[in-house]
Amino acid sequence: MDIPNLGELSIFIGAFIGACVGFLWYNAYPAQVFMGDTGSLALGGIIASLAIIIRKELLIPIICGIFFVELVSVMIQVAYFNVPKRIRGRQAYIPDGPLHHHYQKKGYHESKIVTRFWIIGIVLAIMSIVTLKLQ
Fold first, then answer.
1. To which H or E segment does residue 5 belong?
2. Which residue, 112, 26, 125, is CA-closest to 35?
3. CB-CB contact of 61 with 72 (8 Å)
4. What's the predicted TM-score (pTM) here?
5. HSE of 82 in the Cβ direction (CA atoms, 13 Å)?
């Protein structure tokens, strides 16, 4: 791909990856550092900006698959609880925030949920890197 100013972009991506690895080092169980909403929004903005710069915006749902599923689960929950009680049917999942809380209520340990989400995220990242060659 012909991307202008790729050298500067590579340095930025390297710094971004280094910062994420440094955060994950101290966020391993038991977590010593927490990111919060501001940090996660910044990460999402960086990923979206990079996708726009390399003209691969359609890969965002694949790269961010876990976050996309979490977002959809919250949207389903909000829509479900906005429907009047007399119309509501059976619940799709245990309603307590995002999808990972559903698995916590089912009895899975938090580190097991995180590890499985990481595995799914790594597989989705590999799939998106493979599709970069397809045009």
1. none
2. 26
3. no
4. 0.69
5. 6
Structure tokens at 93: 């999942």
d(Cα 41, Cα 35) in Å, to the nearest integer? Answer: 10
Query: For residues 127 and 66, is the Cβ–Cβ distance under 8 A?
Result: no
Could you write out the DSSP letters of every residue in 38-55?
HHHHHHHHHHHHHHHHTT
Query: 80 near 88, Cβ under 8 Å?
Result: yes
- Please count the residues of the chain: 135
Pairwise CA distance, residues 135 & 128, whole Å: 12
One digit per residue, pLDDT tens: the chain, 135 residues?
Answer: 667 777 888 899 999 999 999 998 888 878 888 888 888 889 889 988 988 888 888 888 888 888 888 888 888 888 777 777 666 666 656 666 688 888 888 888 888 988 899 899 999 989 888 887 776
